[in-house]
């Protein structure tokens, strides 16, 4: 019983982070299961089964708080499902450890870009919409990495959409989390076909599921009211820390370099968040907040605004 409660708390904490920042549920939960001796394939399979419930609850909560852009969900989820099914099938028989350093390097660069842009850059939205030729590759790559690596949908999709500058952060997080339901279903089907049900621990799955479902509405509420600068700085920090850790482990230098790299990253991350908070307050006081703030409706499309104007 104690172990179930611990796993449920892990699922709760992971979903609070994932629902607020658009990433980290899979990475956090899979890491714990692998550390406890579960094979990578079974750990990823267990997490994705739990994610069917947690992502459904998270998507419904984000929709309730107005954090979802359904055009993005439709164009992102389907290629994500294809990539997830292929990734699950591949992980059932192959290892993707050799590709981990390269993937981590790409994601690290994206994390630095997102953190710097939202902490120090302008938040004026770029004109235009995200097109399928951008979203489809992001979905395919993110889905494949998510299933084959035990996590990666959020770390790929969230920084890619944030970096585009065309979608406000809360709708990026909400749309990515809502799309993940389809990705989780496809990945689970791939694992069930490749592994069967042997070795799956439904106690683990149920604990992660319950914790995630409890946390989902709280996280969806938090992301709606968190200022864009602060959210961007936090997301960038999560991406950087996660992928630096992957790189240090891949090159087997975590024991020697981690003792100074991690504290340095923690200081830089904390400093970025503090700076982002202060800059947001200063811009708001001066009336220079460029949008994307709490409750901002700049994510509506032109048709929605025209319809609203016609009704008025």
UniProtKB/TrEMBL annotation:
InterPro entries: TM_pro_TauE-like, TSUP/Inactive_protease-like
Gene source species: Pseudokineococcus marinus
UniProt family annotation: Belongs to the 4-toluene sulfonate uptake permease (TSUP) (TC 2.A.102) family.
Membrane-traversing stretches: 72-94, 100-124, 202-223, 230-248, 260-277
Chief place where the protein resides: membrane
Protein name: Probable membrane transporter protein
Superkingdom, taxonomy of origin: Bacteria
GO cellular component, one term: plasma membrane
Pfam families named in the record: TauE
Alphabetical UniProt keywords: Cell membrane, Membrane, Transmembrane, Transmembrane helix
Location relative to the cell: Cell membrane; Membrane
Region: Disordered, residue numbers: 287-312
Membrane topology: Multi-pass membrane protein
